[in-house]
Amino acid sequence: MDHEPGSAPLRVVLVEDSVLLREGLVRLFDEAGYVTAGAWGDAEDIVRRVADAAADVAILDVRLPPSFRDEGIRAALALREALPGLGILVLSQYVEGVYARELLAGGDGGVGYLLKDRVTSLEEFTDAVRRVQARGTVLDPLVVQGLLAARPDPLSTLTPRERDVLTLMAEGRSNGSIAQRLFIGVGAVEKNISSIFAKFGLEESGTEHRRVLAVLRFLQRD
Known about the structure:
Largest sheet: 6 strands, parallel
Helix content: 40-55%
Structural class: alpha/beta
Shape: elongated
Radius of gyration: 22 Å
Order of helices and strands: EHEHEHEHEHEHHHHH
Number of helices: 10
Strand content: 5-15%
């Protein structure tokens, strides 16, 4: 039983076009002590269906009827926007990095992306469902590898001067102090810092906040 004694069981909904897999997952949910509040073969009118089911977690295949392309991920994105408290776990036959990035773009947790053929353990799968419901993020290791391989290291794009500036920023130095250490003007320092922010994809949210994020990226490098 996968819930605390006296607590309401987790309510899940499933969107999977394969009847065999759908029935197998429903049995798995029953074994875990979950309530299957809905199990469908397509994502038609998905927001209303899931809302009516009062679900805690929605589990969807990426590729669903009618085109078997991206209906599942589009349904997941619609659910995330309409029902922000809902946990969303996407299942895929393949590593599809674009879809994983779209799903993770909000950055607020409660989402997961797993490969179907690696969901072989009841314990591992129910753990993933629990973590998503608790606003955690669950990613298949192969998906993580694919995302990292597809994303260039922003540190590698920095010029030598930008690296010098970022190193001194990490030491907590002000722009004036950096300018003195590098024998350049404060304006040149500011220009380099703006370039660093741009290369790291740090959008406008206050200079000091972006400065901290840039330094964290630098300190967390391999």
